[in-house]
Every structure is written in C-alpha cells, then in structure tokens.
Amino acid sequence: MAETFGAIWNKVLLYAPNTPVPLAQQMVRNAYNRVLNLHYWSELWGEGEKVIPTIVSTGTATTTVGSATVDFSSAIATSSMVGLQFIGNSTITGYYDIIAVPTSSSVTLDKVWAAEAITTGTYQIGEFYVRFPTDLRTLDDIRDIHNNWRLRRQYHQQNYLDRIDARRRYTGAPILYVEAKPLVSSTGVVTPRYEFFPRLVSGAHLVYRYIKNATLTANTDYPISTLRSEALVWGALAELALWPGTSERPNPFFSIDQHREYDKMFLEAVQDSEQTDLDRAQRMLIYDDDSMGYPADAKFMQERGLPY
After folding, report:
1. 4, 17, 97, 116: most buried by Cβ count inside 10 Å?
2. How would you classify residue 76: left for phi > 0, otherwise alpha for psi between -120 and 50, otherwise beta?
C-alpha cells in the first residue's frame, strides 16, 4: 500500500530517532528527487500544444540609451505583455523581457537600453521565449505541426545561439530549441521557457511531450504510485549516514559503510519500481536521439550556419 510523505519521514526517524524532523523531511525529498532523475516514470508523462500568439508591431517605438522604458506611438500596451519580449527591428540586439506596463503606450524592460537609441522605429513584441507548463521537469519532444517535422533535441545551450545568431535576426520554421531563463512571477511561480531557432513567427504550432515535476510538500502527499515507499526511506538514510552532524550535536548515524549499504538498498528498490512502472505502461521507452527530424542536407545547414 502506498504511504504518504508523513509516514515515510516518520519511518526514517524510527531508524535514526536523533534526526531533527526538518532534516528527515528534506532527506526524503532529496531521495525523491534522485528517483525522478533515474527514470522517466509513466505516471508523470504529459502532453500539450502551443500556438505562438500574434506578434505586436503596430506603429513605432522609441527607446533611450540608459532607460528601461519603451514608448509607443499608439496605445498598444496591455498587461498581458508582461513576460513577453521586445526587439527593435531597426536595432536588433537580442531580446529584452517586458516586466511591467506602466501606461497603455509604454512598457518597462528588464534592463536599460544599451544599444543605439531607436527613434520612432519599427519593433516587435512577442513570445520569443516560449512559455511551458509550470509543472514541467523535462521537455522530452517537440514537433512542428505546420512543417511536419520533429525539432532537434536540446543538445545546445543559449550560448550556441549567441554564436550562430547573436542578434536573433533569423525567423521561420524552427529546427532546434534550447532552455532559456525561466520566468519568475511576483508570487514566486516559476514558468519554464525555451528559445527556438530560427525565431518563431505568429501562428507557429508546436505539439510537445514532457515529464512533469513532482514534489512532496504536505504530509498527506503521495509519491508516484509505482515507487516502493521503502526506496525513499533507504535513500534518506543513505544521505543521513553521510552527515557527521555538528560539533555540538554529532550524528550517531554517521557511517560510510552504512551509507553504502543503504544506498545499495535504495538503488535496488528503485530498479524494482522501474520494472513495475514499465510493466504498467506496457511499453519500453526507446529514444532516437540521433534523429534530426528536419531536412538536413548540406545546403540547408550552411544557410543557417549549422555544423554538418
């Protein structure tokens, strides 16, 4: 029978009664995080679709060097623009995040304008850092529906895009994606974001599969159902055995040998749980990371400055 988070950390205290409760809870959470990194649990698979909203470019924009304010020639700014990106077409310098909309004809950027000032120039506001569900842990697969191909997995980071398209000039059908800085709301909600190359245009339609995050917060929370509860007990005890304690309060459970034994028990319990999960899903997860997914002949790659 599945056990709650509260029941699991209380079991840890049965083995190591001198452990402070907050420490026992944290070590169970750490063990659970290890579990989530060891296997793509079928219970946590999710799917979604993303259609890129209309890019705003009405009228003109004005920026001032050293100021984080952008002024527009008309009342186009709305509160929904917070979290979107601004780029000046006449002075392409990469993306600036919009963090506030003080008036209907101005927005505030996340940093001051450092490039050449824009005087009533063209601009674009759009979701160039594409937002995904807040429960996303790993973005596993993305397909471009319009072009009928699968995007390249995130082999690279944003510094790769900085090398091949520092000014973020290219737009069109995306071929790869990289993780971008997440968006953190004023209440602390973290929204994962990814950047695509080339830059997505209005109406781009993406279908994606992802692995959800899972947390143990309240004592009544349950871990994933195919995981043996003792795996978290053994994992927490393995970590506890590595903690010597403090000079005022040494840890009597501290033992390298004990750590090795509990860590072995933890891994064996996780492996058993993985097999149970695969049996339940009735499928093996097979990945073809070498699949490019898009037409990658030499001419296609050269035009985009990509290795081939």
Report:
1. 97
2. alpha
Question: What is the Cα–Cα distance from 61 to 122, expressed in whole angstroms?
Answer: 6
**Residue 186 dihedral angles phi and psi, to the nearest 5°:** -65, -20
Estimate to the nearest angstrom the gap between the alpha carbon of 113 and the chain centroid: 27
Q: Tell me: the pLDDT tens digits for 2-14? A: 899 999 999 999 9
Query: Nearest to residue 199, comparing CAs of 179, 157, 169?
Result: 169
Q: What angle do CA 214, 218, 222 make, to 5 degrees?
A: 50
Confidence at residue 297, expressed as pLDDT on a 0 to 100 scale: 60
Q: Look at the pTM and tell me if it is higher than 0.90.
A: no
Contact 118, 111 (CB under 8 A): no
**Cβ contacts of 240 within 8 Å, gap of 6 or more:** 12, 16, 19, 23, 24, 27, 251, 253
Q: Angle formed by the axes of helices 229-240 and 5-15, to 10°?
A: 40
CA torsion sign for 153, 156, 157, 162 is negative
Name the 3-class secondary structure at 182: strand
| 245-261 residue pLDDT tens | 888 889 999 999 999 99
Nearest to 125 by CA among 103, 99, 151: 99
Residue type, 119: T
Residue 238 — very low, low, confident or very high, per pLDDT cuts 50/70/90?
very high
First to last CA, the chain: 52
Q: What is the pLDDT of residues 157-184, one digit of tens each?
A: 888 998 988 888 889 899 999 999 999 9
Q: In what order do the strands lie in the sheet with 45-51?
A: 45-51, 205-212, 136-144, 149-150
Residue 162: Cβ within 10 Å count:
12
Q: Return the residue matching tokens 């579990």.
A: 35
